Amino acid sequence: MPASDDLPPSSEPSLRPDGYHHGDLRAALIAATAALIEEAGPDTFTLRAAARRAGVSHAAPAHHFRDRAGLLSAYTTTVFDDFTAAMEAHMATAGTDAYLRLKAIGRAYIGFARARPGAFRLMFRAGMLDMEDALLKAAADRSFGVLAVTVAALVHDPLRVQPLAVMTWSMVHGFATLVLDGHFSQACPAGMEPGSDEWLTEELLEGLRPVFLSEQQKSGAGT
Amino acid sequence: MPASDDLPPSSEPSLRPDGYHHGDLRAALIAATAALIEEAGPDTFTLRAAARRAGVSHAAPAHHFRDRAGLLSAYTTTVFDDFTAAMEAHMATAGTDAYLRLKAIGRAYIGFARARPGAFRLMFRAGMLDMEDALLKAAADRSFGVLAVTVAALVHDPLRVQPLAVMTWSMVHGFATLVLDGHFSQACPAGMEPGSDEWLTEELLEGLRPVFLSEQQKSGAGT
DNA sequence: TGTACATCAGTGAACGCGCGTTCACTGATGTAC
DNA sequence: TGTACATCAGTGAACGCGCGTTCACTGATGTAC
Q: Based on CB atoms within 10 Å of each CB, which residue in A152, A166, A191, B221 is the most buried?
């Protein structure tokens, strides 16, 4: 494809301006991975399909990623970053009430799983990723830190922070995975859009409140 | 099976008494599947490996199971039955206090995941199973019913049963999967056996209590 | 008790597939002079 | 401005693998008579 002046100048930087070199194959492969994961989840992902989707021979990715796990890890790093951003964005709209902030995070967590099920599952498929990847580990730590910090703001006794963070994380995470697995498909009462489990989400997030109230009663005698 | 008197009478029914017909290949394949799943989880399971392990050509399973999903579904049915039995056994030792019974179920749920991680994961890998399998569906329903019934015994308002069952299931299930994924590996305080997350398990199960207490306060004004 | 025969439950070879990875190669780029 | 050359980033063919499934087959079983 010489004389590529009929192509948009640089709106699509991955469109192979010269017909041989790609321009930004690394980014194009990550984008292809994103599309494949979004469409069919982690289980059916293959390196060759990603290369195909990026319009490139299947040997090309080796110049940009060590192996399949390398490409998936690079993509998953961006997923964790999106995940963190989603939680922080929700939290930002929630005002200053600490429990409302926690609910906002939970809503974002579950919403992310629903909106991007393949990406969500990939975040927890350690076997497909390169766990030595420092960028990936850092991005994951950032994600999980959001919830930990928010729980810490709600609990006065430092010894109680970890158990409560684990409880909250477990509940929200378990709910998200069970929703993705279709275990609550007709769980909403009449009047809500069918198939939606948003009602259950709200019940769950509000239902956790007594746990934190009881913490404050236990430690808050002085405050 | 002629003249098989040099074999142990029936202690190992899958030992091929005649060298050609197996005796009980169906059961032997399920046992082989159990071993493979226990050792390496669902991801690496193959039909051929199961046949190999049962000491039989890889075409033989076709006489007993429609396909790979059929064999896995038959095995998973037994897993659900074990899972149900484990929860009921724990519950039976818990006396009559409704919340202690719920804790016992949670302990059994998490304990099962820890003791048989591959089998636990398989129960939730719908993509590998034949979801039209009536026996499998029935066994799964029985498992999930144990928790639902026990929550129902704790909650007076019938409209509250589902949200509370979902909360409990989500928390326990999320914790179990996060534990299996190694997210709480050094979570226990000094003094407990390192690597154990049993302490967190107890914190989590006890931590849920205020949720049910608050339900009773809401509805129990008359009682 | 003996024999013919249908049925069952194995075998082993083959099919077709797609995978990840490696390798020698070559076209394109950009830098040194 | 031109040219030599190292480097980069692709190609396409091949390797070796194991998979699930199908198929014609055959050894063993058990039943009818």
A: A166
User: SS3 helix, strand, coil % of chain A, rounded to 5?
Assistant: 70, 0, 30
Instruction: Centre a 10 Å sphere on the Cβ of residue B180 and count the other Cβ atoms it contains.
Output: 17
CA dihedral B87, B93, B95, B96 (to 10 degrees): 20
B66 touches strand C (CB under 7 A): no
Identify the helix (H) or strand (E) that includes residue A48: helix A47-53
Residues of A in contact with B175 (CB under 8 A): 166, 170, 174
**Structure-token pair, residue A12:** 């699509």
CA distances from A100 to A150, A206, B174, B196, B209 (A): 10, 9, 22, 33, 21
Can you give the pTM of this predicted structure? Answer: 0.90
Distance CA A113, CA A104 (A): 14
Which tens digit of pLDDT belongs to each residue from A83-134?
999 999 999 999 999 999 999 999 999 999 999 999 999 999 999 999 999 9
Any B CB within 8 A of A174 CB: yes
| Closest chain B CA to residue A44 | B127
